[in-house]
Design goal:
Number of helices: 11
CATH class of the largest domain: Mainly Alpha
Distance between the termini: 19 Å
CATH topology of the largest domain: Rhomboid-like fold
Number of domains: 2
Largest sheet: 3 strands, antiparallel
Strand order of the largest sheet: 1-3-2
Shape: elongated
Strand content: 5-15%
CATH superfamily of the largest domain: Rhomboid-like
Amino acid sequence: MNWYPAKRFALQQDLRPYLQAFQRRGFQVHVTEDAGDQVLWLNQPVTEDELNEVLRTAEPHYTPPETERRRGVSPLTIARLLRGQPLTLLLILCSVLGALPTAWDGGWSLVRILSFTDIGASQGRLYFSDLTSVLRQGEWWRLLTPMFLHFGVLHVLFNSLWVWELGRRIERMQSWRRLLLVVTVTSLGANLLQYALSGPSLFGGMSGVVYGLVGYIALWQRLEGQHSFNVSPALLGFMLLFLVLGFTGTVDIFIDGAVANGAHLGGLLSGVGLAATLLLIKRIVLTRKGSER
């Protein structure tokens, strides 16, 4: 399939009304980022008059290119930014809040609630329950909540930057529901594999989900084209290199504690597996629709 660039928009602009307007007219659409702008792509070329007509129907206050003015940051711009990727921003906010209990002396009870298994302390030593006990007691939230725990400023900052860079692309170009699905599946996969490899222990962070986003985006772009998310292959390659270095123990030299390599690998495999499943379903549906015509 060939794709044609239709129009550039400011990065903070909410494009959903435009996407829906083109889809109502039978177009397939994609949005990518380039040089600080959003680029709207269509599966077939359109004239400038046709383009402006669709844009006018999408939003009453649309201004044609000849009268368009650049505006500075305003409350409306910030509101559009929040509306454009609310789940991504919520994940970052929860990560920041999840870093507070580990930095606060009185936050131990919250750490116990968010950890994968319950934690007890006696005579200066930590004791952990096991996964069987967690499931038997109905504490299902523990399968996901370790992703919000963070240990230090650099930990939460590093993960938040990657969630913003990768998560918002899925949310903007597919939907917040799809991002929620990716985060849920990859968080579960990351936490289960980390537990399987390390046993009952204290671990946490959004990095397992980040690797899930990497795996999901990498396979989707590989099979559907880079325009799907427009993430640089070099960026994805860097993350994979970091994963390998983590297993060698090199990264542990430069940080306090140890890297949760099992979570990284579990997230990556879960992201790849989810993308493969969804793409397979998509192709089956398209094949059936084609055979019905």
